[in-house]
Amino acid sequence: MKIRIYFTTLAITLLSITMLSSCSTKQSAIRHLQNLSYDLRDNSSYYTIKDWQDVAKEFAELRDKMARFRYTPEERRKIGEIEGQCARYMVQGIKNGAINGILGVGNEIRGILDGLGIKY
Predict the structure, then answer these.
(1) How many Å apart are CA 48 and CA 26, to the nearest integer?
(2) What mean pLDDT is predicted for residues 52-61?
(3) What sign results for the dihedral spanned by CA atoms 7, 8, 11, 12?
(4) Tens digit of pLDDT for each residue in 71-115?
(5) Distances in Å between the alpha carbon of 27 and those of 6, 9, 24, 64, 69?
(6) How many other β-carbons are positioned within 10 Å of the β-carbon of residue 105?
(7) 95 and 120 in contact (C-beta within 8 Å)?
(8) Do the beta carbons of residue 34 and residue 85 sit within 8 Å?
(9) R_g (Cα) of the chain, nearest Å
């Protein structure tokens, strides 16, 4: 009888840990995207070519990571809002000419924006 109680307690504990870490991971992805948006807002005018390459890669990786989780409609709305902010700052960078001459990075960011359905 004690063994059954032990294994039941262990199973409940493991399930709880899994559920909590899953929420933490999906929420951390949203926080990471929000931080990227803040960084774009505050620092994109100072970005180098390498910075733009890193941002484009990071943005694409975050979108891939978040696609693995199930989000509520409210969370999806928030993610869309933050992605829109990131895209807006990327478009501003393109319009300001910060990356117009760089075909690789410019096309990658344009591809991300096209994938989001954003006209620039």
Answers:
(1) 30
(2) 86
(3) negative
(4) 999 999 999 999 999 988 887 876 665 445 554 556 666 676 677
(5) 32, 27, 5, 14, 10
(6) 24
(7) yes
(8) no
(9) 20
